[in-house]
Amino acid sequence: MNIKANIEQIKEEIKKYSPYPEKVKIVAVSKYVDVDIIEKILETDCNVLGENKVQVLKDKIAYFKEKNTNLEWHFIGNLQKNKVKYIIDDVSLIHSVNKLTLAEEIDKRAKAVNKKVDILLEINISEEESKQGYNLEELFKDIKNLKKFENINIIGLMTMTPLNAEEETIRAIFQSLRKIKDELNEKYFFGTLKELSMGMSSDYKIALQEGSTMIRIGSKLYK
Ligand SMILES: *Cc1c(COP(=O)(O)O)cnc(C)c1O
């Protein structure tokens, strides 16, 4: 495993494939590894970590709280409403908001700790049953209400592609997400949606070409 070399390689690919490399952030997905390996990630200049389980995220945040104050923790997994309260203080971005009731709970908990929380709306473009995100009909139905929450900043969109999909399918999904972002910006957000969280180890190069600003990289870091 050579995390440093892998991150360097990904950075070169960002320069090569992205239309705007300076906007692209690597979210180092640390859900597979323990704190000793995370220390190795932090020896590079990568300081954004992604986790998908509330309890694991809490434990890791607690471990690094005194050691490293420069960390950003992103929640990338399916978030249950009753667990929002456990992460609200320490998380800097939630990628996976997929329901009005979840947004409502995040807003309420954020208000209680006097904070404004950045979130992304997760969109299920492929409309796979197994995927968690908003389908487009629901999204457009909820959008005005989503915008009303005072303690939430909606800063962009996130999507996942189906496992083992063809390159053309993956590319079409990323292109759709970008178009939806443009449409939402035009009609509702006046350009304030900046982020497209798309691309994981298997498809980040395509995501970069299609305008991703956040690639969520897990397994590739640990090879
Ligand atoms: C695990 C995970 C990733 C990283 O996946 P890899 O294929 O290992 O890079 C990205 N996004 C989400 C939401 C994940 O759960």
Topology:
Blueprint: H1 3-17, E1 25-29, H2 35-42, E2 48-51, H3 54-65, E3 72-75, H4 84-87, E4 93-97, H5 100-112, E5 117-123, H6 136-148, E6 152-159, H7 167-189, E7 195-197, H8 204-209, E8 214-217
Parallel strand pairs: 1-2, 1-8, 2-3, 3-4, 4-5, 5-6, 6-7
The chain binds pyridoxal-5'-phosphate (PLP).
Pyridoxal-5'-phosphate is lined by residues 29, 31, 52, 76-77, 160, 200-202, 216-220.
List the helices and strands in order: HEHEHEHEHEHEHEHE
Gyration radius, in Å = 17 Å
Helix content: 40-55%
Mean pLDDT: 96
Task: Give the terminus-to-terminus CA distance.
Answer: 5 Å
Mind summarizing the main beta sheet?
8 strands, parallel
- Taken as a percent bin, the fraction of beta residues is 15-25%
Q: What best-fitting shape do the alpha-carbon axes yield?
A: globular
- Count every helix, treating DSSP H or I runs of 4 or more residues as helices: 8
Class by alpha and beta content: alpha/beta
Stretches where pLDDT is under 50 for at least 5 consecutive residues are none
Task: Say how many strands there are.
Answer: 8
Bound molecules: pyridoxal-5'-phosphate
Strand line-up across the major sheet: 7-6-5-4-3-2-1-8
